[in-house]
Amino acid sequence: MIKKLIIATANKHKLSEIEFILKDSVKEISPMPADMEIEENGKTFMENSLIKAKAVYEKIKIPSLADDSGLCINALGGKPGLFSARYGGENLSYKEKMQMILEELKDKKDRTAYFITSAVCMLNEKYYIALEGKVDGKIIESPRGFEGFGYDPIFMPEGFNMTYAEMKAEEKNLISHRFIAMSKMKKILSCIYEH
């Protein structure tokens, strides 16, 4: 079991999802220092995760885990993608972002989309683990549900007739893109730190 892991995020929702998944394989999970600001200027989700994990590890010298996630809509050429959190401008609420997306998809037949999480765990100066989790689904006509956060009310995962936001946290945490990525991470960390 790994003794301590720093999660490179200030997002409380993300932190609690990661804690829920990794709780059996990490003794102590902490968020990164509140005063830390990291510029995510990578060209892919994986690059952004690596930038964040490295920055936190370099400052604290404790294994650091970062993830970068986004919603990619096929009919919009993969948008909002890397800019999921900033889509339409920094000051737009997620309600406004979702309305913008639904407007952009109004005349499109193809509503397929996927959520992706790229995760990187920096173990020390030389080694890191990098992996991804992906969930295919579609964008529905109008938001449904009040659970979750971000774009959850308009995303319906494949094989379900409810959105992420209509699922209880425990349900979503068992099928989400972040769960897939973090479950893989948990397996690898458990192998490395089994004693």
Automatic annotation (TrEMBL):
Substrate binds at T9, A10, N11, K12, H13, K14, S69, F149, G150, Y151, D152, K172, H177, R178. The gene is rdgB. Pyrophosphatase that catalyzes the hydrolysis of nucleoside triphosphates to their monophosphate derivatives, with a high preference for the non-canonical purine nucleotides XTP (xanthosine triphosphate), dITP (deoxyinosine triphosphate) and ITP. Seems to function as a house-cleaning enzyme that removes non-canonical purine nucleotides from the nucleotide pool, thus preventing their incorporation into DNA/RNA and avoiding chromosomal lesions. Homodimer. This is dITP/XTP pyrophosphatase. The keyword Cell division does not apply. Its EC number is 3.6.1.66. Keywords: Hydrolase, Magnesium, Metal-binding, Nucleotide metabolism, Nucleotide-binding. NCBIfam families: RdgB/HAM1 family non-canonical purine NTP pyrophosphatase. Belongs to the HAM1 NTPase family. The active site is at D68 (proton acceptor). The keyword Hydrolase applies. Mg(2+) binds at E39, D68. It catalyses: ITP + H2O = IMP + diphosphate + H(+); dITP + H2O = dIMP + diphosphate + H(+); XTP + H2O = XMP + diphosphate + H(+). Binds 1 Mg(2+) ion per subunit. Its cofactor is Mg(2+). Transmembrane segments: none annotated. HAMAP family: Non_canon_purine_NTPase.
